[in-house]
Fold this sequence. Notes:
Elements: H1 3-15, H2 19-28, H3 34-39, H4 43-52, H5 62-70, H6 74-89, H7 97-113, H8 118-124, H9 129-138, H10 143-158, H11 164-173, H12 177-189
Helix pairs in contact: 1-6, 7-10, 7-12, 11-12
Amino acid sequence: xxxxxxxxxxxxxxxxxxxxxxxxxxxxxxxxxxxxxxxxxxxxxxxxxxxxxxxxxxxxxxxxxxxxxxxxxxxxxxxxxxxxxxxxxxxxxxxxxxxxxxxxxxxxxxxxxxxxxxxxxxxxxxxxxxxxxxxxxxxxxxxxxxxxxxxxxxxxxxxxxxxxxxxxxxxxxxxxxxxxxxxxxxxxxx
Length: 190
């Protein structure tokens, strides 16, 4: 759990929020009492309150993503995505470097070849319907990014148990044999 990096990311987002943004965020946080909300003047104060209520945390950024999306601050989502990318890359997930490299190579091939069948593969990898919808919403017009996000989320869930063989098997189970063959070919070449 990367508490320091998480708080640094929250501070960076908070610094870029206008007073109007903070007011909009407060309006969206209806489960926080009115008296408490009146005392909150900055984004970081609101985020601290959300952390106390376990609405957000280092491994739980979905609500923060929704809030930023709801107030139209998609530019600040980039800061959140950068944090998520950094935490996914960190070896703290227990995944050895060799397997991480294999998954990375597989990801590039899959992104290039999978296409619209990514939802079926996502279900086969065990992702929930709401998670798949979240990916679609986050990258509504970017098919390649949807596939990349699918694999990123799968790795986050599977942690040290993520294996490239599991990706290949999911592709084969969804009759994406050409893509699976291309992944295996790429892995053999390296």
